[in-house]
Amino acid sequence: MTNSYRQLFELHDQVAIVTGGGRGIGLAIAEGLGSFGAKIVIGERDPVLADNAACQLREQGIEAMAVVTDVTDHAQLTALFDQACAEFGELDILINNAGVSARIPAEDYPRADLQQMIDLNLTAVFQGMQEAARRWIAHGKGGSIINLASFAGVVADPLSAPYAATKGAVVQLTRTCAVEWAQHGIRVNAIGPGYVRTEMTAHTLDTPEAGAVIQAKTALARAARPDEMVGAAIYLASEASSYTTGHILMVDGGWTAM
Ligand SMILES: NC(=O)c1ccc[n+]([C@@H]2O[C@H](COP(=O)([O-])OP(=O)(O)OC[C@H]3O[C@@H](n4cnc5c(N)ncnc54)[C@H](O)[C@@H]3O)[C@@H](O)[C@H]2O)c1
Predict the structure, then answer these.
(1) Is 163 one of the annotated active-site residues of the chain?
(2) Per CATH, which fold does 8-250 belong to?
């Protein structure tokens, strides 16, 4: 057994869909899984980001394709899975990463924005999980689903009430579906990042107050880089985590430990 431990993280020929993989955390995870041998399908709404991401991966020797997809459109989401399977074969890994955040006082939060956030951060995540699970169950095959939750899904993050609510929902989708689908060999886990410097958070992180908040609330006293989410994703995608399901792996610099 000892010699085979080195193979635990191997993803050779595994097929992974990464939603919102055009930039930020999704792109970093796509690179990470690809570097361990996975074939990557980027499901990204922005056509330029989608193409650039696939090119960037291929330049690194990773088999990759992009499917321009708005994951909130169910027909497009289904087409993403169909194209992934047609091009690369059956899916093994789903990274449910596409998401949006907003920092608005709770009492002022516009109703239309609320619905959009729910559509993307909750409904599309669940529909992606269903799409993967239905295919795996039909083919008698297991797989690994990794959802992007957040520290805000488990502790309060003022000015983020609807975002926090959707991420809390992702935490419970993760746990509940992990238990429901365990009998089918489907593992469902989530990564709970702290603040990660991406285009989503750059504006917040560049305000003078943010530095003080990060310093005060993060044990490691800094925001993360997107590549610091990759190790967790490789672990949860691979055989290394064969006995881990329904888990929310906090990669938050100690935020929720404080
Ligand atoms: N950055 C952070 O600090 C942080 C912290 C906790 C959790 N997260 C979560 O991690 C995930 C990725 O965050 P990020 O910081 O990389 O964000 P980001 O905004 O940098 O990237 C999100 C990507 O998703 C794409 N996207 C948006 N809507 C889409 C849709 N409808 N269909 C397909 N693609 C769509 C965007 O075009 C973009 O490429 C999100 O779910 C986010 O909530 C981020």
Answers:
(1) yes
(2) Rossmann fold (3.40.50)
